[in-house]
Amino acid sequence: MGVGLGTTTGLAAGLYHLVNHAIGKALAFTAIGVLVREFRTRNIIALEGAGRYYPMILFSLTIAFLHLIGLPPFGGFFSKLLLYQAFVEKQMYIMALMVIVTSVLSSYGYLRILEHLWHPPVPKQLIHPRSLAIAVNITMIIFIAAILSIGFLSPFITEYLRNVGVYTTNGYMEYIDTVYKALHSLRPDNIITP
What we know:
Blueprint: H1 8-39, H2 50-53, H3 55-69, H4 75-89, H5 93-118, H6 134-152, H7 154-185
């Protein structure tokens, strides 16, 4: 939606949110994927209490969900704030409100997942919890570091993306103007016939 505004702020917000969402979802799916593999089920009720046996998974999911909800100091907060500002600049107050409403609604779903993973009983499939592979831990640590970095480096990232937005929107307008001129010159009344 931010890119569709065609403004510098909208483009910067859309790109920033795209990166934030991709990293947050990648961490969430990685962590959930480990639980699905370990317990051989995708049923959240069957996974109740699984987070107690895999604290790294629960921690990773908590970071990913807080990032996706858009709480500070995570990057998701700053990209949603930028998206909100882009809508306000265009006086699209309903869309700006939708940024807040969707964050609140998604937070309910994410927090329910965390509640199920923390809340007893222990999954019946669990006999002896296995330790996570080193590659899984390293992958989740890299994602967490990326999420925290994107949040703490937000001023620099935002400034860079605003510059990209300025360059892109200016180039976009020049492109439209060139195409318009080309089409205008091809109108039948402008064609010179011998």
